[in-house]
Amino acid sequence: MCGIVGYVGQRKAAGVLIDCLSKLEYRGYDSAGVALFEKSGIEVIKATGRLKVLAAALEAKPELSATCGIGHTRWATHGAPSDLNSHPHTSEHVTLVHNGIIENYLKLKEMLLSNGYTFQSETDTEVLVKLFDFNYDGDPLCTILKTLSQVRGSYGLAIMFKDFPDRIYGVRKESPLIVGYGQGENFLASDIPALLKYTREYSILEEGQIAEVTEDKITIYDEFGNPTEKEHLTADWDVEAAEKCGYAHFMLKEIHEQPKAMLSTISPRIEDGMPDLHVKSLTDDYLRKVKRIHIVACGTAMHAGMVGKTAIERLCRVPVEVDIASEFRYRDPIIGEDELTVIISQSGETLDTLAALKLARAKGSKVLGIVNVVGSSIARESDDVIYTYAGPEIAVASTKAYSVQLAVLYLLALRMAYARNTLSQEKVQAYVKELLRLPELIGEVLEDSEQIKYLASQFMNCDDLFYLGRGFDYALSLEGSLKLKEISYVHSEAYAAGELKHGTISLIVEGTPVIALATQDDVFEKTISNVKEVKSRGAKVILFCKKGVSVPADVADYIVSLPVYEEIFMPMLTAVPLQLFAYYMAVLRGCDVDKPRNLAKSVTVE
Ligand code: F6R
After folding, report:
1. What separation in Å is there between the alpha carbon of 20 and the centre of ligand 1?
2. What are phi and psi of 359, to 5 degrees?
């Protein structure tokens, strides 16, 4: 979603802001803009479309010399992408950029209209900036406190007051915002990658906190306006982690980073051959007592939860429910005593997931977060966190974050199975040994990328595609299908292989592409029967199975053979060619792989 940056220092702010915004492009946006404290007053420059359009507009104005300013990439919510609707928005005294939604903006607009204000855009943000103006009393802090007390909704804001050209302000509620500490310069941003080129030292603003940023000082105030101390954190992500490093796209780079991400996530959690999650409260005693698990997440993270459910139920014999966060939060879920809620999120900022977390806690559930971004809202609100060590994921389509989420869920399942005595210590150790082979095996799968590229070239013109599988393969096919849809814009559906004939098989005609996943020994023959059903109706089939299994003749047009591996862990291997298939389909179809249309990386609105 929208990206926010702010700069106060000695460099030319325009260049720094564009540079920082470019590192937030991955969040998704459709217009961009900056506001600069020039000697002549505040100058606002905006452009619809990609950041390079804004950069060109700024380059055409070499006279811009401001060393203080704010910038924004907008993902349209209220009003179409246009120069008028894009940020910054201005009023007589105040200029600001906003990430989030002001829910009571219509009411506020009525009040402002009756006080003589006029509006040019369709946005809730223009209402907000005029409300700031209405409340402005010469004191920025008091104005911020008063204005935000009248506002309902979510916001991350960077604000400039015309009368205070040496500073910018930042404030947040439910939308992420950090401050970055430099030498003779300071920053505001929605996310760490924006700042890595300039500084690694940062603090995360808490709900309601206000940051006053000048070139030599950052003062943080609490929600009542009292100065407060803030812990300084150091980002351990390096600049390369947020660069493409020779890969054509971030998505390809991140797919190739999976062996390393897996190793970083799994190996610190193995002690004496046994999984040890290093989470104080997840004692064996506690894991023995858990009666049910709720896994709650959105999108790809929810699909990881589906694989986790299959693993936990199979290995631990504990019932697991998986919920889409936006459904969970409004369905009044039943959470009993000794039930654990597991919240999965790459960004740690997904609004629906965060709301689901708060609801689970309010219902008395213990909450375990599985999160990639250290210090993010979900990490901080959870009772305990297991961090996935994927490093920054920049491409909108999640790949490495999904894989490490799976790894953590398998580790949890194994530890729980040991604690509950559904698996012996020897058996758990044998599984762990297998798990440690994973980085190497993913490397092997990546070496076969050319075959996947070839398959994509054979299917690139299709309009619809089906993914089939049973059990683990069904859970994975949901993710394969989502990956394809989101970046290549090819419609696809994932089906439990046995379910197709209950209706959907009517869509299979001569040439319909089907990707069939058959990596599980116990249901291999059943899945092959289902594949035969579509094949005999003319489907063009790519079959994914383990090397060496015997596949009946004429069942598939193409076979992708995967390394022979412990079958419960197969989703972590099979995911890789599915990601590559989606990637190459998108590339061949000329799509903007890293920034698919209409999508945002971090979804901070409902
Ligand atoms: C798809 C994708 C999304 C996210 C979803 C949740 O590739 O990335 O479906 O998985 O928006 O995001 P997080 O994990 O940040 O909560």
Report:
1. 23
2. -65, -45
517 CB under 6 A from ligand 1?
no
pLDDT in tens, 150-205: 999 989 999 999 999 999 999 999 888 999 999 999 999 998 889 989 999 999 99
Residues 358-381 pLDDT 10s: 999 999 999 999 999 988 889 999
> Cβ(481) to ligand 1 under 6 A?
no
> How would you list the strands of the sheet with 320-324, edge to edge?
320-324, 292-297, 339-345, 366-371, 384-387
Q: Which of 191, 350, 394, 402 to mutate to test the pocket of ligand 1 (most atoms within 8 A of CB)?
A: 350
Give dist(CA 56, CA 64) in Å, integer: 13
Transcribe 395-429 into DSSP letters.
Answer: SSS-SHHHHHHHHHHHHHHHHHHHHTTSS-HHHHH
DSSP annotation string for 108-119 = HHHHHHHTT---
Chain segment 453-501, per-residue pLDDT in tens: 999 999 999 999 999 999 999 999 999 999 999 999 999 999 999 998 8
With a 6 Å cutoff on the Cβ, whether 123 touches ligand 1 is no
Q: How far is the CA of 197 from the centre of ligand 1 (A)?
A: 26
266 vs 281: CA distance, rounded Å:
19
Q: What is the pLDDT of residues 232-285, one digit of tens each?
A: 998 876 666 667 888 999 999 999 999 999 999 999 999 999 999 999 999 999
545 is catalytic: no
Q: Where are the beta strands (DSSP E) in 201-328?
A: 201-204, 210-213, 218-221, 227-228, 233-234, 270-271, 274-275, 292-297, 320-324
| Residue 487 CA, ligand 1 centroid: distance in Å | 13
The pTM of the full predicted model, rounded to 2 decimals, is 0.81
Handedness of CA 266, 268, 271, 276 (dihedral sign): negative
Look up 2 and say whether it is catalytic: yes
DSSP state of 588: H
Residue 343's contacts (CB-CB under 8 Å, 6 or more residues apart) are 296, 297, 353, 356, 357, 360, 367, 368, 369, 370, 371, 378, 382
**Which atom of ligand 1 lies nearest, measured to the CA of 350?**
16
**Is 1 near ligand 1, meaning CB less than 6 Å away?**
no
Nearest atom (ligand 1) to Cα of 373: 15
CA distance linking residue 432 with residue 437, whole number of Å? 9
